[in-house]
Amino acid sequence: MIGGGFFGNGPVQVALLIGGGAAVVSAVVGVFTVMRGQSFAGHALADISSAGGSASLLLGIPALAGFLAMAALGAGGMEMIGARQIRERDLVTGIVLGAGLGLTALFLYLDISTTSASGAANTVMFGSMFAIAPGTVPFALGVGALALAVSVVLYRPLLLIAIDPDLAAIRGVNARLLGLLHLLVLAVAVALSAMTIGAILSTALLIGPAAAALRVATRPVWAIVLAVTIGLVATWGGIALAYDSFYWTPGHGWPVSFFVVVIVVASYAAAGPVGGALARRRATALPAPVSGFEPGG
Amino acid sequence: MICHIIRSDHFGAWGMADFRAALVLAVLVAGTGCALASGPIKDGPIRAVGIENEYANVIQQIGRRYVAASAIESNPNTDPHSFEASPRVAQQIAGAALVVENGVGYDSWADKIIAAAPDPHRVVINVQHLLGLPNATPNPHLWYAPTTMPVVAKAVAAALGRMAPGHAAYFEANVARFDASLKPWYAAIAAFKARYGGTPVAVTEPVGDYMLEAAGADIETPFSLQAAIMNGTDPSPQDVATQNALFNAHKVKVFVYNQQVTDPLTASFLDLARKDHIPVVGVYETMPTPGYDYQSWMLAEVQALQRAVTAGISTQSLLGGK
Protein backbone atom coordinates (compact mmCIF):
# COMPACT_ATOMS: atom_id res chain seq x y z
CA MET A 1 0.00 0.00 0.00
CA ILE A 2 2.75 2.43 0.94
CA GLY A 3 4.00 4.14 -2.19
CA GLY A 4 7.68 4.19 -3.05
CA GLY A 5 9.93 6.52 -1.13
CA PHE A 6 7.88 6.54 2.08
CA PHE A 7 10.76 5.91 4.45
CA GLY A 8 13.21 7.93 2.39
CA ASN A 9 10.97 11.00 2.50
CA GLY A 10 12.39 13.73 4.76
CA PRO A 11 9.11 15.19 6.06
CA VAL A 12 7.79 11.66 6.69
CA GLN A 13 10.83 10.76 8.78
CA VAL A 14 10.35 13.84 10.96
CA ALA A 15 6.62 13.09 11.27
CA LEU A 16 7.25 9.45 12.23
CA LEU A 17 9.70 10.50 14.95
CA ILE A 18 7.78 13.40 16.49
CA GLY A 19 4.38 11.80 15.92
CA GLY A 20 5.62 8.57 17.50
CA GLY A 21 7.00 10.44 20.50
CA ALA A 22 3.76 12.34 20.94
CA ALA A 23 1.75 9.10 20.70
CA VAL A 24 3.82 7.30 23.34
CA VAL A 25 3.80 10.15 25.86
CA SER A 26 0.11 10.86 25.26
CA ALA A 27 -0.84 7.20 25.69
CA VAL A 28 1.07 6.75 28.96
CA VAL A 29 -0.14 10.00 30.46
CA GLY A 30 -3.57 9.38 29.00
CA VAL A 31 -4.09 6.17 30.98
CA PHE A 32 -3.63 8.02 34.27
CA THR A 33 -5.67 10.94 33.00
CA VAL A 34 -8.64 8.73 32.11
CA MET A 35 -8.38 6.77 35.38
CA ARG A 36 -8.34 10.00 37.38
CA GLY A 37 -11.32 11.33 35.44
CA GLN A 38 -9.35 14.27 34.13
CA SER A 39 -10.17 13.92 30.45
CA PHE A 40 -11.73 17.35 30.41
CA ALA A 41 -8.65 18.87 32.03
CA GLY A 42 -6.53 17.23 29.35
CA HIS A 43 -8.71 18.65 26.62
CA ALA A 44 -8.63 22.07 28.27
CA LEU A 45 -4.84 22.04 28.49
CA ALA A 46 -4.62 21.21 24.79
CA ASP A 47 -6.85 24.12 23.87
CA ILE A 48 -5.05 26.47 26.24
CA SER A 49 -1.72 25.47 24.71
CA SER A 50 -2.97 26.75 21.36
CA ALA A 51 -2.59 30.26 22.79
CA GLY A 52 1.10 29.51 23.24
CA GLY A 53 1.37 28.06 19.75
CA SER A 54 -0.20 31.14 18.19
CA ALA A 55 1.87 33.48 20.38
CA SER A 56 5.07 31.72 19.31
CA LEU A 57 4.35 32.65 15.69
CA LEU A 58 4.00 36.26 16.79
CA LEU A 59 7.21 36.23 18.81
CA GLY A 60 9.18 34.14 16.36
CA ILE A 61 10.09 31.44 18.90
CA PRO A 62 9.84 27.66 18.25
CA ALA A 63 6.22 26.50 18.25
CA LEU A 64 6.88 23.66 20.71
CA ALA A 65 8.28 26.08 23.27
CA GLY A 66 5.12 28.17 22.96
CA PHE A 67 2.76 25.20 23.26
CA LEU A 68 4.73 23.88 26.22
CA ALA A 69 4.96 27.13 28.16
CA MET A 70 1.26 27.87 27.80
CA ALA A 71 0.18 24.33 28.69
CA ALA A 72 2.40 24.40 31.79
CA LEU A 73 0.97 27.79 32.74
CA GLY A 74 -2.55 26.42 32.28
CA ALA A 75 -1.74 23.35 34.38
CA GLY A 76 -0.36 25.55 37.14
CA GLY A 77 -3.39 27.80 36.96
CA MET A 78 -5.84 24.91 37.24
CA GLU A 79 -3.97 23.37 40.14
CA MET A 80 -3.57 26.70 41.91
CA ILE A 81 -7.29 27.38 41.85
CA GLY A 82 -7.35 23.75 42.90
CA ALA A 83 -10.91 22.66 43.44
CA ARG A 84 -11.34 19.32 45.18
CA GLN A 85 -14.72 18.14 44.05
CA ILE A 86 -15.11 16.90 40.54
CA ARG A 87 -18.00 19.21 39.76
CA GLU A 88 -16.06 22.24 40.93
CA ARG A 89 -12.96 20.99 39.12
CA ASP A 90 -14.85 20.91 35.86
CA LEU A 91 -15.99 24.45 36.48
CA VAL A 92 -12.48 25.74 37.11
CA THR A 93 -11.18 23.82 34.11
CA GLY A 94 -13.89 25.29 31.91
CA ILE A 95 -13.08 28.82 32.99
CA VAL A 96 -9.32 28.41 32.44
CA LEU A 97 -10.13 26.82 29.08
CA GLY A 98 -12.23 29.80 28.09
CA ALA A 99 -9.47 32.20 29.03
CA GLY A 100 -6.96 30.20 26.99
CA LEU A 101 -9.15 30.16 23.89
CA GLY A 102 -9.80 33.89 24.24
CA LEU A 103 -6.05 34.49 24.21
CA THR A 104 -5.76 32.17 21.21
CA ALA A 105 -8.32 34.27 19.35
CA LEU A 106 -6.31 37.42 20.11
CA PHE A 107 -2.95 35.94 19.13
CA LEU A 108 -4.27 34.36 15.94
CA TYR A 109 -5.83 37.70 14.98
CA LEU A 110 -2.51 39.45 15.60
CA ASP A 111 -0.62 36.72 13.70
CA ILE A 112 -2.82 37.08 10.66
CA SER A 113 -3.24 40.85 10.67
CA THR A 114 0.29 41.96 11.56
CA THR A 115 2.59 39.19 10.37
CA SER A 116 2.80 37.12 7.24
CA ALA A 117 1.77 33.92 9.02
CA SER A 118 -1.45 33.47 7.07
CA GLY A 119 -1.79 29.75 7.77
CA ALA A 120 -1.52 30.29 11.52
CA ALA A 121 -5.04 29.22 12.44
CA ASN A 122 -4.87 26.02 10.44
CA THR A 123 -1.43 25.09 11.69
CA VAL A 124 -2.12 25.75 15.35
CA MET A 125 -5.58 24.20 15.47
CA PHE A 126 -5.18 21.21 13.15
CA GLY A 127 -1.45 20.67 13.04
CA SER A 128 0.89 20.41 10.11
CA MET A 129 2.87 17.24 10.67
CA PHE A 130 4.71 17.38 7.37
CA ALA A 131 5.81 20.97 7.86
CA ILE A 132 7.77 20.48 11.09
CA ALA A 133 11.37 21.65 10.91
CA PRO A 134 13.80 18.69 11.28
CA GLY A 135 15.73 20.69 13.88
CA THR A 136 12.79 20.33 16.27
CA VAL A 137 13.24 16.56 16.61
CA PRO A 138 15.88 16.36 19.37
CA PHE A 139 14.11 18.93 21.55
CA ALA A 140 10.70 17.31 21.09
CA LEU A 141 11.93 13.79 21.80
CA GLY A 142 14.01 15.02 24.76
CA VAL A 143 11.02 16.71 26.36
CA GLY A 144 8.93 13.61 25.69
CA ALA A 145 11.54 11.33 27.30
CA LEU A 146 11.64 13.58 30.36
CA ALA A 147 7.87 13.41 30.69
CA LEU A 148 7.99 9.61 30.42
CA ALA A 149 10.70 9.42 33.09
CA VAL A 150 8.59 11.51 35.47
CA SER A 151 5.62 9.24 34.75
CA VAL A 152 7.66 6.15 35.67
CA VAL A 153 8.80 7.72 38.94
CA LEU A 154 5.24 8.76 39.80
CA TYR A 155 3.73 5.47 38.65
CA ARG A 156 2.85 3.94 41.99
CA PRO A 157 1.59 7.03 43.87
CA LEU A 158 -0.31 8.22 40.79
CA LEU A 159 -2.02 4.88 40.49
CA LEU A 160 -2.93 4.92 44.17
CA ILE A 161 -4.43 8.40 43.89
CA ALA A 162 -6.29 7.38 40.79
CA ILE A 163 -7.82 4.30 42.39
CA ASP A 164 -8.27 5.26 46.00
CA PRO A 165 -7.64 8.90 46.92
CA ASP A 166 -8.60 8.31 50.55
CA LEU A 167 -6.14 5.48 51.02
CA ALA A 168 -3.49 7.59 49.32
CA ALA A 169 -4.16 10.40 51.80
CA ILE A 170 -3.82 8.00 54.75
CA ARG A 171 -0.50 6.79 53.37
CA GLY A 172 0.73 10.37 53.30
CA VAL A 173 0.83 10.90 49.56
CA ASN A 174 0.98 14.62 48.78
CA ALA A 175 -1.97 14.71 46.42
CA ARG A 176 -1.54 18.38 45.64
CA LEU A 177 2.07 18.10 44.52
CA LEU A 178 1.39 14.88 42.70
CA GLY A 179 -1.59 16.43 40.94
CA LEU A 180 0.51 19.34 39.78
CA LEU A 181 3.32 17.07 38.56
CA HIS A 182 0.79 14.96 36.69
CA LEU A 183 -0.74 18.04 35.08
CA LEU A 184 2.74 19.18 34.03
CA VAL A 185 3.47 15.83 32.40
CA LEU A 186 0.05 16.12 30.83
CA ALA A 187 1.05 19.56 29.55
CA VAL A 188 4.09 18.03 27.83
CA ALA A 189 1.92 15.36 26.23
CA VAL A 190 -0.62 17.80 24.85
CA ALA A 191 2.08 20.22 23.68
CA LEU A 192 3.76 17.45 21.72
CA SER A 193 0.55 16.25 20.13
CA ALA A 194 -0.64 19.82 19.49
CA MET A 195 2.52 20.25 17.40
CA THR A 196 1.66 17.21 15.34
CA ILE A 197 -2.09 16.76 15.00
CA GLY A 198 -3.09 20.21 16.24
CA ALA A 199 -4.39 21.71 19.47
CA ILE A 200 -8.04 20.86 18.90
CA LEU A 201 -7.36 17.22 18.04
CA SER A 202 -4.62 16.43 20.54
CA THR A 203 -7.32 15.31 22.97
CA ALA A 204 -8.02 12.44 20.59
CA LEU A 205 -4.48 11.12 20.96
CA LEU A 206 -4.50 11.66 24.73
CA ILE A 207 -7.87 10.17 25.62
CA GLY A 208 -8.68 7.82 22.76
CA PRO A 209 -5.94 5.15 22.99
CA ALA A 210 -6.06 5.20 26.81
CA ALA A 211 -9.85 4.84 26.93
CA ALA A 212 -9.79 2.03 24.37
CA ALA A 213 -7.02 0.22 26.26
CA LEU A 214 -8.87 0.53 29.57
CA ARG A 215 -11.92 -1.11 28.00
CA VAL A 216 -9.83 -4.20 27.24
CA ALA A 217 -7.00 -4.49 29.76
CA THR A 218 -7.53 -5.43 33.38
CA ARG A 219 -4.12 -4.42 34.67
CA PRO A 220 -2.66 -0.90 34.45
CA VAL A 221 0.61 -2.14 32.96
CA TRP A 222 -1.26 -3.85 30.14
CA ALA A 223 -3.49 -0.80 29.72
CA ILE A 224 -0.39 1.35 29.23
CA VAL A 225 1.21 -1.11 26.80
CA LEU A 226 -2.01 -1.39 24.83
CA ALA A 227 -2.59 2.38 24.82
CA VAL A 228 0.94 2.97 23.52
CA THR A 229 0.36 0.37 20.80
CA ILE A 230 -2.95 1.92 19.73
CA GLY A 231 -1.43 5.41 19.81
CA LEU A 232 1.50 4.34 17.63
CA VAL A 233 -0.72 2.45 15.20
CA ALA A 234 -3.00 5.48 14.91
CA THR A 235 -0.18 7.96 14.41
CA TRP A 236 2.05 5.95 12.12
CA GLY A 237 -0.96 4.50 10.31
CA GLY A 238 -2.32 8.02 9.90
CA ILE A 239 0.98 9.20 8.46
CA ALA A 240 1.08 6.27 6.03
CA LEU A 241 -2.52 6.86 4.93
CA ALA A 242 -1.94 10.60 4.52
CA TYR A 243 1.14 9.82 2.43
CA ASP A 244 -0.83 7.37 0.34
CA SER A 245 -3.80 9.71 -0.04
CA PHE A 246 -1.59 11.87 -2.26
CA TYR A 247 -2.20 9.28 -4.98
CA TRP A 248 -5.97 8.96 -4.43
CA THR A 249 -6.89 12.47 -5.47
CA PRO A 250 -3.90 13.41 -7.57
CA GLY A 251 -1.70 15.98 -5.93
CA HIS A 252 -3.91 16.63 -2.91
CA GLY A 253 -2.84 14.76 0.19
CA TRP A 254 -5.48 14.51 2.91
CA PRO A 255 -4.60 15.88 6.37
CA VAL A 256 -2.78 13.47 8.71
CA SER A 257 -4.87 14.60 11.68
CA PHE A 258 -8.00 13.23 10.05
CA PHE A 259 -6.58 9.73 9.62
CA VAL A 260 -5.09 9.65 13.13
CA VAL A 261 -8.44 10.52 14.67
CA VAL A 262 -10.30 8.00 12.48
CA ILE A 263 -8.02 5.17 13.65
CA VAL A 264 -8.32 6.28 17.29
CA VAL A 265 -12.11 6.33 17.15
CA ALA A 266 -12.21 2.97 15.35
CA SER A 267 -9.98 1.44 18.06
CA TYR A 268 -12.26 2.74 20.79
CA ALA A 269 -15.32 1.38 19.02
CA ALA A 270 -13.65 -2.01 18.52
CA ALA A 271 -12.40 -2.11 22.11
CA GLY A 272 -15.94 -2.38 23.50
CA PRO A 273 -16.87 -5.75 21.96
CA VAL A 274 -13.31 -7.07 22.42
CA GLY A 275 -13.31 -6.08 26.08
CA GLY A 276 -16.75 -7.65 26.58
CA ALA A 277 -15.71 -10.92 24.94
CA LEU A 278 -12.56 -11.07 27.07
CA ALA A 279 -14.56 -10.45 30.24
CA ARG A 280 -17.00 -13.27 29.38
CA ARG A 281 -14.12 -15.66 28.74
CA ARG A 282 -12.52 -14.77 32.05
CA ALA A 283 -15.84 -15.18 33.82
CA THR A 284 -16.22 -18.74 32.51
CA ALA A 285 -12.55 -19.65 32.96
CA LEU A 286 -12.08 -18.34 36.46
CA PRO A 287 -14.39 -18.93 39.39
CA ALA A 288 -13.70 -15.55 40.95
CA PRO A 289 -13.49 -12.37 38.82
CA VAL A 290 -10.22 -10.49 38.89
CA SER A 291 -10.58 -7.59 41.26
CA GLY A 292 -9.98 -4.00 40.16
CA PHE A 293 -6.66 -2.36 39.76
CA GLU A 294 -4.11 -3.02 42.46
CA PRO A 295 -1.37 -0.52 43.08
CA GLY A 296 1.74 -1.71 41.34
CA GLY A 297 -0.31 -3.94 39.04
CA MET B 1 -4.44 76.66 0.06
CA ILE B 2 -4.67 77.24 -3.63
CA CYS B 3 -8.12 75.88 -4.44
CA HIS B 4 -8.05 72.13 -4.42
CA ILE B 5 -5.48 71.40 -6.99
CA ILE B 6 -2.58 70.72 -4.70
CA ARG B 7 -4.79 68.78 -2.37
CA SER B 8 -4.17 65.64 -4.29
CA ASP B 9 -2.20 63.89 -1.60
CA HIS B 10 -0.11 61.66 -3.77
CA PHE B 11 2.80 63.84 -4.66
CA GLY B 12 5.06 60.98 -3.81
CA ALA B 13 3.95 59.09 -6.88
CA TRP B 14 4.44 62.10 -9.14
CA GLY B 15 7.45 62.74 -11.25
CA MET B 16 9.25 66.06 -11.03
CA ALA B 17 7.72 67.17 -14.33
CA ASP B 18 4.24 66.57 -12.98
CA PHE B 19 5.11 68.51 -9.89
CA ARG B 20 6.32 71.46 -11.92
CA ALA B 21 3.25 71.34 -14.12
CA ALA B 22 1.02 71.31 -11.09
CA LEU B 23 2.90 74.23 -9.62
CA VAL B 24 2.51 76.25 -12.80
CA LEU B 25 -1.15 75.37 -12.91
CA ALA B 26 -1.52 76.23 -9.26
CA VAL B 27 -0.01 79.69 -9.80
CA LEU B 28 -2.27 80.19 -12.79
CA VAL B 29 -5.31 79.19 -10.79
CA ALA B 30 -4.32 81.43 -7.92
CA GLY B 31 -3.92 84.31 -10.34
CA THR B 32 -7.31 83.82 -11.90
CA GLY B 33 -9.14 83.33 -8.64
CA CYS B 34 -9.89 79.71 -9.25
CA ALA B 35 -11.62 80.42 -12.52
CA LEU B 36 -10.18 77.24 -13.96
CA ALA B 37 -11.74 75.08 -11.30
CA SER B 38 -14.66 73.11 -12.64
CA GLY B 39 -16.37 69.74 -12.32
CA PRO B 40 -15.20 67.58 -9.48
CA ILE B 41 -12.53 70.06 -8.49
CA LYS B 42 -15.16 72.27 -6.94
CA ASP B 43 -16.20 69.42 -4.66
CA GLY B 44 -12.70 68.09 -4.28
CA PRO B 45 -11.20 65.21 -6.19
CA ILE B 46 -13.10 62.03 -7.02
CA ARG B 47 -12.61 59.62 -4.17
CA ALA B 48 -11.44 56.20 -5.30
CA VAL B 49 -10.31 53.05 -3.50
CA GLY B 50 -8.01 50.34 -4.77
CA ILE B 51 -8.44 47.34 -2.49
CA GLU B 52 -4.79 46.42 -3.13
CA ASN B 53 -2.37 49.31 -3.32
CA GLU B 54 -1.13 48.40 -6.80
CA TYR B 55 -4.64 49.11 -8.11
CA ALA B 56 -4.83 52.35 -6.12
CA ASN B 57 -1.53 53.35 -7.68
CA VAL B 58 -2.84 52.81 -11.20
CA ILE B 59 -6.07 54.70 -10.44
CA GLN B 60 -4.00 57.63 -9.23
CA GLN B 61 -1.82 57.53 -12.33
CA ILE B 62 -4.89 57.72 -14.57
CA GLY B 63 -6.91 60.24 -12.55
CA ARG B 64 -3.97 62.29 -11.30
CA ARG B 65 -5.13 65.64 -9.92
CA TYR B 66 -8.84 64.91 -10.28
CA VAL B 67 -8.71 61.81 -8.16
CA ALA B 68 -7.71 60.97 -4.59
CA ALA B 69 -7.09 57.23 -4.58
CA SER B 70 -6.44 55.36 -1.36
CA ALA B 71 -5.50 51.75 -0.77
CA ILE B 72 -6.72 49.32 1.85
CA GLU B 73 -4.11 46.61 1.62
CA SER B 74 -0.67 48.06 1.53
CA ASN B 75 1.31 46.52 4.39
CA PRO B 76 4.12 44.52 2.78
CA ASN B 77 4.47 42.42 5.94
CA THR B 78 1.01 40.93 6.05
CA ASP B 79 -0.79 38.50 3.82
CA PRO B 80 -3.77 40.05 2.01
CA HIS B 81 -5.31 36.58 1.54
CA SER B 82 -6.37 36.58 5.17
CA PHE B 83 -7.32 40.23 5.50
CA GLU B 84 -10.10 41.17 7.92
CA ALA B 85 -11.94 44.41 7.32
CA SER B 86 -12.42 46.98 10.06
CA PRO B 87 -15.16 49.62 10.43
CA ARG B 88 -12.71 52.26 9.20
CA VAL B 89 -12.23 50.30 6.00
CA ALA B 90 -15.99 50.04 5.57
CA GLN B 91 -16.26 53.83 5.86
CA GLN B 92 -13.47 54.27 3.32
CA ILE B 93 -15.27 52.09 0.79
CA ALA B 94 -18.68 53.61 1.51
CA GLY B 95 -17.30 57.07 0.67
CA ALA B 96 -15.70 56.02 -2.60
CA ALA B 97 -17.10 56.77 -6.05
CA LEU B 98 -14.83 54.21 -7.68
CA VAL B 99 -13.58 50.91 -6.28
CA VAL B 100 -11.17 48.53 -7.98
CA GLU B 101 -11.01 45.03 -6.53
CA ASN B 102 -9.03 42.01 -7.66
CA GLY B 103 -11.66 39.24 -7.46
CA VAL B 104 -10.96 35.48 -7.71
CA GLY B 105 -11.84 35.24 -4.01
CA TYR B 106 -8.72 37.21 -3.14
CA ASP B 107 -10.64 40.11 -1.62
CA SER B 108 -14.18 38.77 -1.41
CA TRP B 109 -14.69 40.55 1.91
CA ALA B 110 -14.79 43.80 -0.09
CA ASP B 111 -17.93 42.65 -1.94
CA LYS B 112 -19.76 42.34 1.36
CA ILE B 113 -18.79 45.85 2.43
CA ILE B 114 -19.71 47.27 -0.96
CA ALA B 115 -23.08 45.53 -0.77
CA ALA B 116 -23.61 46.83 2.77
CA ALA B 117 -23.29 50.45 1.63
CA PRO B 118 -25.23 50.56 -1.63
CA ASP B 119 -24.69 53.60 -3.85
CA PRO B 120 -26.08 53.64 -7.39
CA HIS B 121 -23.40 56.10 -8.48
CA ARG B 122 -20.45 54.05 -7.27
CA VAL B 123 -18.54 52.19 -9.96
CA VAL B 124 -16.95 48.90 -8.93
CA ILE B 125 -14.36 47.40 -11.23
CA ASN B 126 -13.69 43.74 -10.55
CA VAL B 127 -10.48 42.86 -12.35
CA GLN B 128 -11.37 39.17 -12.59
CA HIS B 129 -14.65 39.99 -14.36
CA LEU B 130 -12.95 42.66 -16.44
CA LEU B 131 -10.55 40.02 -17.76
CA GLY B 132 -13.34 37.47 -18.14
CA LEU B 133 -11.70 34.95 -15.83
CA PRO B 134 -13.71 32.12 -14.22
CA ASN B 135 -14.08 31.86 -10.45
CA ALA B 136 -12.03 28.67 -10.55
CA THR B 137 -8.93 30.56 -11.73
CA PRO B 138 -6.25 28.87 -9.60
CA ASN B 139 -3.85 31.81 -9.38
CA PRO B 140 -5.43 35.06 -8.12
CA HIS B 141 -2.30 37.22 -8.40
CA LEU B 142 -3.54 38.91 -11.58
CA TRP B 143 -1.39 42.04 -11.33
CA TYR B 144 1.76 40.06 -12.11
CA ALA B 145 0.40 39.28 -15.59
CA PRO B 146 1.77 41.83 -18.09
CA THR B 147 -1.60 42.02 -19.84
CA THR B 148 -3.68 42.94 -16.77
CA MET B 149 -2.98 46.57 -15.90
CA PRO B 150 -3.46 48.14 -19.35
CA VAL B 151 -7.01 46.73 -19.32
CA VAL B 152 -7.55 48.02 -15.78
CA ALA B 153 -6.19 51.46 -16.70
CA LYS B 154 -8.56 51.68 -19.64
CA ALA B 155 -11.57 50.69 -17.53
CA VAL B 156 -10.58 53.19 -14.83
CA ALA B 157 -10.29 55.97 -17.43
CA ALA B 158 -13.71 55.10 -18.84
CA ALA B 159 -15.30 55.15 -15.38
CA LEU B 160 -13.64 58.44 -14.44
CA GLY B 161 -14.62 59.91 -17.80
CA ARG B 162 -18.27 59.19 -17.07
CA MET B 163 -17.98 60.85 -13.66
CA ALA B 164 -16.19 63.92 -14.98
CA PRO B 165 -16.95 64.10 -18.73
CA GLY B 166 -15.04 67.34 -19.03
CA HIS B 167 -11.79 65.54 -18.29
CA ALA B 168 -12.38 62.36 -20.28
CA ALA B 169 -9.71 63.25 -22.82
CA TYR B 170 -7.26 63.96 -20.01
CA PHE B 171 -7.85 60.49 -18.52
CA GLU B 172 -7.45 58.89 -21.95
CA ALA B 173 -4.17 60.68 -22.41
CA ASN B 174 -2.99 59.36 -19.06
CA VAL B 175 -3.84 55.82 -20.16
CA ALA B 176 -1.62 56.27 -23.19
CA ARG B 177 1.15 57.55 -20.93
CA PHE B 178 0.68 54.66 -18.54
CA ASP B 179 0.80 52.10 -21.35
CA ALA B 180 3.97 53.68 -22.70
CA SER B 181 5.57 53.58 -19.26
CA LEU B 182 5.10 49.80 -19.13
CA LYS B 183 7.38 49.34 -22.13
CA PRO B 184 10.65 49.00 -20.18
CA TRP B 185 9.05 46.17 -18.18
CA TYR B 186 7.87 44.40 -21.33
CA ALA B 187 11.30 44.84 -22.87
CA ALA B 188 12.98 43.37 -19.80
CA ILE B 189 10.62 40.36 -19.86
CA ALA B 190 11.23 39.81 -23.59
CA ALA B 191 14.98 40.13 -23.15
CA PHE B 192 14.96 37.62 -20.30
CA LYS B 193 12.85 35.19 -22.28
CA ALA B 194 15.12 35.44 -25.31
CA ARG B 195 18.29 34.78 -23.38
CA TYR B 196 17.23 32.74 -20.35
CA GLY B 197 13.96 31.15 -21.40
CA GLY B 198 13.57 27.72 -19.82
CA THR B 199 15.45 28.68 -16.66
CA PRO B 200 14.23 26.36 -13.88
CA VAL B 201 12.96 28.20 -10.78
CA ALA B 202 11.38 27.22 -7.45
CA VAL B 203 8.69 29.31 -5.76
CA THR B 204 6.80 29.28 -2.46
CA GLU B 205 3.44 30.19 -3.87
CA PRO B 206 2.04 31.34 -7.19
CA VAL B 207 2.30 35.07 -6.46
CA GLY B 208 4.77 35.82 -9.24
CA ASP B 209 3.88 32.91 -11.53
CA TYR B 210 2.20 34.96 -14.28
CA MET B 211 5.31 37.07 -14.70
CA LEU B 212 7.64 34.05 -14.50
CA GLU B 213 5.61 32.33 -17.20
CA ALA B 214 5.72 35.46 -19.37
CA ALA B 215 9.49 35.49 -18.92
CA GLY B 216 9.70 31.88 -20.04
CA ALA B 217 10.88 30.49 -16.71
CA ASP B 218 10.11 26.85 -15.84
CA ILE B 219 8.36 26.73 -12.47
CA GLU B 220 9.49 23.42 -10.95
CA THR B 221 7.58 23.64 -7.65
CA PRO B 222 4.43 21.46 -7.77
CA PHE B 223 1.35 23.66 -7.95
CA SER B 224 -0.28 21.67 -5.14
CA LEU B 225 2.53 22.81 -2.81
CA GLN B 226 2.13 26.41 -3.95
CA ALA B 227 -1.62 26.18 -3.29
CA ALA B 228 -1.09 24.60 0.15
CA ILE B 229 1.26 27.43 1.18
CA MET B 230 -1.03 30.07 -0.31
CA ASN B 231 -4.08 28.71 1.50
CA GLY B 232 -2.32 27.76 4.73
CA THR B 233 -3.29 24.09 4.52
CA ASP B 234 -1.27 20.94 5.19
CA PRO B 235 1.36 20.37 2.50
CA SER B 236 1.81 16.81 1.26
CA PRO B 237 5.12 15.18 2.26
CA GLN B 238 5.76 14.23 -1.37
CA ASP B 239 5.61 17.86 -2.45
CA VAL B 240 7.81 19.03 0.43
CA ALA B 241 10.39 16.37 -0.47
CA THR B 242 10.22 17.37 -4.14
CA GLN B 243 10.85 21.01 -3.22
CA ASN B 244 13.74 20.10 -0.89
CA ALA B 245 15.30 18.07 -3.69
CA LEU B 246 15.07 21.06 -6.08
CA PHE B 247 17.46 22.90 -3.79
CA ASN B 248 19.69 20.05 -2.68
CA ALA B 249 20.21 18.69 -6.18
CA HIS B 250 20.65 22.22 -7.59
CA LYS B 251 17.85 21.65 -10.05
CA VAL B 252 16.79 25.31 -9.91
CA LYS B 253 18.65 28.54 -10.63
CA VAL B 254 16.44 30.91 -8.62
CA PHE B 255 14.13 30.72 -5.61
CA VAL B 256 11.20 33.14 -5.91
CA TYR B 257 10.08 33.82 -2.36
CA ASN B 258 6.84 35.52 -1.36
CA GLN B 259 7.68 38.05 1.34
CA GLN B 260 4.09 38.26 2.49
CA VAL B 261 3.23 34.63 3.19
CA THR B 262 5.81 33.02 5.42
CA ASP B 263 5.65 30.18 7.90
CA PRO B 264 8.11 27.65 9.32
CA LEU B 265 7.89 25.65 6.08
CA THR B 266 8.75 28.56 3.78
CA ALA B 267 11.47 29.57 6.24
CA SER B 268 12.96 26.08 5.97
CA PHE B 269 12.98 26.39 2.16
CA LEU B 270 14.71 29.74 2.50
CA ASP B 271 17.37 28.16 4.72
CA LEU B 272 17.88 25.35 2.22
CA ALA B 273 18.22 27.79 -0.68
CA ARG B 274 20.82 29.79 1.24
CA LYS B 275 22.71 26.65 2.22
CA ASP B 276 22.74 25.42 -1.37
CA HIS B 277 23.69 28.90 -2.69
CA ILE B 278 20.56 29.35 -4.76
CA PRO B 279 19.81 33.07 -5.19
CA VAL B 280 16.51 34.32 -3.77
CA VAL B 281 14.17 36.86 -5.39
CA GLY B 282 11.48 38.40 -3.20
CA VAL B 283 8.00 38.94 -4.61
CA TYR B 284 5.04 40.70 -3.02
CA GLU B 285 1.28 40.51 -2.77
CA THR B 286 1.02 44.29 -2.57
CA MET B 287 3.25 47.01 -3.98
CA PRO B 288 6.27 47.49 -1.72
CA THR B 289 6.31 51.06 -0.46
CA PRO B 290 7.78 53.58 -0.29
CA GLY B 291 9.82 54.00 -3.40
CA TYR B 292 7.85 52.17 -6.07
CA ASP B 293 4.99 52.68 -8.44
CA TYR B 294 3.45 49.77 -10.29
CA GLN B 295 5.76 50.02 -13.30
CA SER B 296 9.01 50.42 -11.37
CA TRP B 297 8.02 47.58 -9.02
CA MET B 298 7.40 45.14 -11.86
CA LEU B 299 10.57 46.21 -13.64
CA ALA B 300 12.54 45.75 -10.41
CA GLU B 301 11.22 42.18 -10.11
CA VAL B 302 12.42 41.24 -13.59
CA GLN B 303 15.75 42.92 -13.01
CA ALA B 304 16.15 41.00 -9.75
CA LEU B 305 15.36 37.79 -11.61
CA GLN B 306 17.94 38.68 -14.24
CA ARG B 307 20.61 39.44 -11.62
CA ALA B 308 19.90 36.14 -9.90
CA VAL B 309 20.37 34.15 -13.10
CA THR B 310 23.36 36.03 -14.50
CA ALA B 311 25.32 36.84 -11.35
CA GLY B 312 23.80 34.62 -8.67
CA ILE B 313 22.83 37.71 -6.65
CA SER B 314 19.88 37.52 -4.24
CA THR B 315 17.35 40.34 -4.02
CA GLN B 316 15.27 39.04 -1.19
CA SER B 317 13.67 42.38 -0.48
CA LEU B 318 13.01 45.26 -2.83
CA LEU B 319 12.97 47.63 0.11
CA GLY B 320 16.27 49.00 1.32
CA GLY B 321 17.85 48.02 4.59
CA LYS B 322 16.51 44.49 4.62
Automatic annotation (TrEMBL), chain A:
Record lineage: Bacteria, Pseudomonadati, Pseudomonadota, Alphaproteobacteria, Acetobacterales
Family assignment from sequence similarity: Belongs to the ABC-3 integral membrane protein family.
Entry keyword set: Membrane, Transmembrane, Transmembrane helix, Transport
Keyword Membrane belongs to the record: yes
SUPFAM superfamilies, per the entry: ABC transporter involved in vitamin B12 uptake, BtuC
Gene Ontology BP annotations: response to zinc ion; transmembrane transport
Name by which UniProt lists this protein: Metal ABC transporter permease
Source domain of life: Bacteria
Membrane topology according to the record: Multi-pass membrane protein
Transmembrane regions: 12-35, 55-78, 90-110, 140-163, 183-208, 220-243, 255-279
Subcellular location: Cell membrane; Membrane
One CC-aspect GO term: ATP-binding cassette (ABC) transporter complex
Pfam families noted in UniProt: ABC-3
UniProtKB/TrEMBL annotation, chain B:
Major subcellular location class: other
Subcellular compartments: Cell envelope
GO aspect biological process, one term: metal ion transport
GO cellular component: cell envelope
Pfam families named in the record: ZnuA
Superkingdom in the source lineage: Bacteria
Zinc-finger recorded as keyword: no
InterPro entries: Bact_metal-bind_prot9, ZnuA-like
Presence of the UniProt keyword Zinc in the record: no
SUPFAM superfamilies: Helical backbone' metal receptor (SSF53807)
Alphabetically ordered keywords of this record: Metal-binding, Signal, Transport
A GO term for molecular function: metal ion binding
Protein name as it appears in the record: Zinc ABC transporter substrate-binding protein
Species this chain originates from: Acidiphilium acidophilum
